[in-house]
Structure formats: C-alpha cells, structure tokens
C-alpha cells in the first residue's frame, strides 16, 4: 500500500525499517480499516518492534500492545481508535504514559521517542508472540472484570507475570535487560 497518513514507507535505510513496527492482527486491522503490509523480519532495534491485538473485555474493546522481543505489554482502551493515525497516536501515547509510571521512561526517551511520529503496520506472524498474547489477553480480562483493577495496575500485573517463552522471567525484567545491552 502507498504512504498511509504519512506513516508507511519513509525512513528506510538500505531496505531496513528505521521506525516503529506495529504488527497488527486481522481483528485490529479490520477495526482501524487498513490492509497491513506483509510481515517484516524482526526490527534491529527491539524497542521499536511491537505486536498489537484487539481483544474484547465484556463489551469493551481493548488494544493489547506487546513488545515482540521481551513481551513487555500495555493495554489501552480501543474506544475512539478507528483509523491508522488514531491507532499510532493512542499506542505511542499509552506506551509513553505507562513506561513513565513503570519507571522505564528513560527507555522510552532513549530508544523510542524519536520514532513516535512514524510507524509501519504489517501483519502479525510470530506464533510465539501471538501465543503469549493470548495468555496476556486472558489475564487482562480477569484483572479488569473479576478483580476490577484500573488499567495501570493491569499493565503492572501483566509485566510482572512469568512467561514460559522468556524462560520463566518477567517481561519487565526482560525489558530492563534489553536496555542494559
């Protein structure tokens, strides 16, 4: 697809994407009315590679963003996110806000802030990440509906949950370990 809302095909350096990648599921692509590009290889900067899914929590739409490398996740309301531009703005805003709450603002500022205005949306294809996201989606529903937690506490719980893909470590610890490299 061409350049959608100033988002897609700029910032390529020798065939490599040098901007945020959002790997979207079919459900989310349908909601924001896009046809995502073909799946891309993993980004050379793991902080710029995110997978996004639309989940339903009762009758409430929720977008779950998960870092494709360390599974660090942020849930955000899906209400009002009806196109690509709104998705990119809401997603980057939620990442910035929650990472500041979580004490990871320096990671956002150092690795992601300069890429906030640009993003490529492609198909989600990593089954390892999508399988982990199914588990995270289940826990998001439980924390919001049964425990009645606010979204910021849901995000904290998601990132302090051991994940088998990460060899039973926590996504928050994996994110901090990536930042130390």
Overall geometric form: globular
| Range of strand content | 15-25%
Largest sheet: 5 strands, mixed
CATH class categorisation: Alpha Beta
Distance between the termini: 35 Å
Radius of gyration: 15 Å
Count the helices. How many? 6
And the CATH topology?
A: Nucleotidyltransferase, domain 5
The CATH architecture is 2-Layer Sandwich
Keywords:
181 residues; alpha/beta; 6 helices; disordered N terminus; 39% helix; two-stranded antiparallel sheet; five-stranded mixed beta sheet; 20% strand; Nucleotidyltransferase, domain 5
Structural write-up:
- Helix 2 crosses helix 3 and helix 4 crosses helix 5 (151-159).
- The strands form 2 sheets. Strands 6-5-4-3-7 form a 5-stranded mixed sheet, with helices on both faces. A two-stranded antiparallel ribbon has the order 1-2.
- It has a single domain, classed as Nucleotidyltransferase, domain 5 (2-Layer Sandwich), CATH 3.30.420.
- The longest helix is centred in the last third of the chain and has 20 residues, at 127-146.
- It has 6 helices and 7 strands; from the N terminus they run E-E-E-H-E-E-E-H-H-E-H-H-H.
- It has 181 residues and is an alpha/beta fold.
Short description:
The protein contains 6 helices and 7 strands.
Describe the SSE topology.
Elements: E1 12-13, E2 16-17, E3 20-24, H1 26-31, E4 49-57, E5 60-67, E6 73-77, H2 84-101, H3 105-112, E7 119-123, H4 127-146, H5 151-159, H6 171-180
Parallel strand pairs: 3-4, 3-7
Antiparallel strand pairs: 1-2, 4-5, 5-6
């Amino acid at each position: 697809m061409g350049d959608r809302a100033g988002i897609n095909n700029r910032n390529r350096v020798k065939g490599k994407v040098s901007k945020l990648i959002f790997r979207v599921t079919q459900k989310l692509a349908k909601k924001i009315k896009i046809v995502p590009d073909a799946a891309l290889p993993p980004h050379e900067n793991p902080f710029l590679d995110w997978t996004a899914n639309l989940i339903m929590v009762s009758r409430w739409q929720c977008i779950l963003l998960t870092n494709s490398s360390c599974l660090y996740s942020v849930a955000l309301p899906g209400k009002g996110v009806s196109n690509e531009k709104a998705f990119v703005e809401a997603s980057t805003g939620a990442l910035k806000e929650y990472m500041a709450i979580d004490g990871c603002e320096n990671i956002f500022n150092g690795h992601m802030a300069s890429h906030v205005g640009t993003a490529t949306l492609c198909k989600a294809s990593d089954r390892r990440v999508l399988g982990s996201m199914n588990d995270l989606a289940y826990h998001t529903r439980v924390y919001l509906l049964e425990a009645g937690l606010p979204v910021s506490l849901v995000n904290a719980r998601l990132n302090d949950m051991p994940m088998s893909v990460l060899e039973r470590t926590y996504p928050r610890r994996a994110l901090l370990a990536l930042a130390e490299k």
